[in-house]
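User:
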Amino acid sequence: MNDKLLLGLPYRQFVFTLPKVLRVFFRHDKRLHGEITRLVYGLVRDFTTEAAGKPIRTAAVVVFQSSGRFSRWNPHWHGLFLEGGFGRDGRFVHVPTVDLAKMSACFRQRVIVYFLERKLLNERLAKNMVEWAHSGFSVDASIRIPAGSAKAREALAQYIPRPTAGRSPARGARPPISLQKLLVDEGGTDTVVYRAPYSDYFHTDTKVFPAIEFLVEVLQHLPDSRSRLIRTYGLYSSRGRGTWSRQPHLVRLAPEGWKRDHPPEPPLRIGLPDERQSDLSVSAKQSRAAWARLIKMVYEADPLGDSRS
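Assistant: Predicted structure:
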């Protein structure tokens, strides 16, 4: 992704989370995550455009993840967004900060309205959720990548799942567990010890699972074969990337992998003869001689042609 997609510009990672009362819907309807993904992109795009003070084109990669700490069910979204966008003149407008408090409130309102329109919530519950002091909706944007930090950009890009061979880049799935954090006791207890960074929710950095229970926890994150977990938007969408070659300001910032796949076309030499065919060009003298021979041949074939006309 860093080698073929990400422009050499500053980025910010956004993480969007939902309250527990809404998480269960994503367990039974796995199409919801795609629709909320589009909502997340539209939200950040609108805030960025408003902060820029004029229409701009931005870009983002948004990933849906269903697993939280210790593989528990916790649907959330990771988004890698440009810190700004391009104006109509091709200049990049840097938007280093946005109002996260207002963005979180707007995220809550848009999600509640969406669930209400889909009749997944009734009006009474929707109204209560709007007034909750601790809503469970959150937006985090603490991770920032400067434009010149290629290593940091690559490290964050690696956090986003990469596709397996033969699959669409938009369908790659990140494993819900890390094998390096597992310890399986095969001595007859059939338990699995899972270690992770300390969790304020669990108040521990280690959790012991019975083997069967652990399998149940992991299998709930198995995505449908048709699910798209990674989506690209704006300049990173398929249509957006198709215009890069015609925009010099994007070609200049494009990653090396993209440039290798899209070598510049040789310039057209309009009005200049090809040097390899210069010996085949016809001079003015030769042209006049050819016309003289043609007229002579016509006259000899029909010497009375002038008098007949």
